[in-house]
Structures are given as C-alpha cells and as structure tokens.
C-alpha cells in the first residue's frame, strides 16, 4: 500500500479518495487516509434501471468478465454489493 501511494505521489497525484469497508478501514488509516468530514451527506436514489443492460448480449471489460452476467455489475443495493465483495474476497 505504501509503495502504491509513493508511486502515485511520484506521478503527480495530489489526492486519493476512497470508500473503505469496515475490514479495510484500519489499513487505510494506518497509511495516512483520514475520515472526511463533510457538510453534505453522500446520497443517491435509483429511479430506474438502465434498460440498455438488458438489451446487450455482452460487455467484456479489462478483467475479462462479461459485465451483463457479473454480480458486481448488477448489484442493486449496497447490501448486495457487500455480499458480492465478500464472495470475491474469499474466491480470489
């Protein structure tokens, strides 16, 4: 992690922001990340699913997976996304 941060600094990156899970929180704190105190709350509302997802046969990305079938891509809530991230952590 520290090597990545050093490389980013050498490349001129000035700020790195992330959303940490409970499992990763202490690691990020240990290398210098700080909690962001903001005047505003991070919020969203999903009004409709993007219909083009259902009309595409496949969408292959850099990881080599077909996004249309990938549970990470089709998760509809933070809870679903958390379950998928736990699965991928153990599958590695």
Indicate the multimeric state.
single chain
Span between N and C termini? 18 Å
Biggest beta sheet attributes: none
The coarse silhouette is extended
The tally of beta strands, per DSSP, is: 0
Report the uncertain regions: none
Radius of gyration, in angstroms, nearest whole number: 17 Å
- Range of strand content: under 5%
Order of SSEs: HHHHH
Q: What level of helicity do the residues show?
A: 40-55%
The total of helices stands at 5
Content-based structural category: mainly alpha
The average pLDDT is: 76
Question: How would you sum up this structure, described in words?
Answer:
By secondary structure, the chain is mainly alpha-helical. The two termini are 18 Å apart. It is 43% helix and 0% strand.
Question: What's this, in brief?
Answer:
With 92 residues, the protein is mainly α. The protein has 5 helices and no strands.
């Amino acid at each position: 992690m520290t090597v990545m941060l050093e490389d980013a600094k050498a490349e001129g990156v000035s700020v790195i922001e992330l959303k940490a899970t409970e499992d990763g929180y202490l690691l990020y704190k240990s290398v210098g990340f700080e909690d962001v105190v903001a005047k505003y709350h991070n919020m969203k509302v999903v009004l409709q699913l993007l219909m083009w997802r259902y009309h595409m046969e496949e969408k292959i990305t850099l990881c080599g997976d077909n996004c249309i079938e990938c549970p990470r891509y089709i998760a509809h809530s933070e809870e679903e996304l958390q379950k998928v991230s736990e699965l991928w952590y153990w599958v590695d």
